[in-house]
Amino acid sequence: MSRLSIFPDQATDTGQTAAPLVVSDDAALIHQELMQRGIGFEQWAAPIDLAGDADEASILRAYADDVAQVKQRHGFITVDAIRMTPDHPDRVSLRSTFLCEHTHAEDEVRFFVEGQGLFSLHLKNEVLVVLCERGDLIHVPAGTRHWFDMGANPGFCALRFFNNAAGWVADFTDDPIADRFPRLE
Ligand SMILES: [Fe+2]
């Protein structure tokens, strides 16, 4: 089940992460809290069980109608599918890359069609930790500080939309803030 936790971004006097101000798995409340902060969050149907050996082209074909809708709505020009499994050869390096706080020059839009992943959004004086599950469509505006955890045993597939041909390009903030916040267990 999708879940939102909202933390103060500042550590306590003893250097600990402060207790969350909000924890909810109510989809309507998650949508509302995120929308108030300029973050898009919708729950779509993601009814297709992907074959274990499904390649990227077949995943994108399976969700062609959704892909077309998101592209049209936001003017994205490219889309890819990232799929991680517990035995993926690059799982350790990719996990540590995505766990570093970063921003993008373009909006980050992800449609989860399998499994789950943990987005953390650093807005002003808050960190919003969003557990995204299959069917969740999240839209993070350009320039938003954030990081992502796929966990030590990753299991997810997300469609990623881009408006530049280079795909995923990040500016890292070099702030180790992610070290203080919950990871995907
Ligand atoms: Fe990102």
Your description of this structure?
Strands 1, 2, 3, 4, 6, 7, 8, 9 and 10 form a nine-stranded antiparallel β-sheet that branches. A two-stranded antiparallel sheet has the order 5-11. The chain is globular, with a radius of gyration of 16 Å. The protein has 185 residues and is of the alpha+beta class. It has a domain of 126 residues: Jelly Rolls. It is built from four helices and eleven strands, in the order E-E-H-E-H-H-E-H-E-E-E-E-E-E-E. It starts with a strand and ends in a 13-residue tail after the last strand. Bound molecules: fe (ii) ion.
Summed up, what is this model?
The protein has 185 residues and is of the alpha+beta class. The protein contains four helices and eleven strands, in the order ββαβααβαβββββββ. The protein has a domain of 126 residues: Jelly Rolls (Sandwich).
Supply the CATH superfamily name of the domain at 41-116 and 131-180: Jelly Rolls
> Low-confidence stretches at least 5 residues in length (pLDDT < 50)?
none
What's the CATH topology label of the domain at 41-116 and 131-180?
Answer: Jelly Rolls
Shape: globular
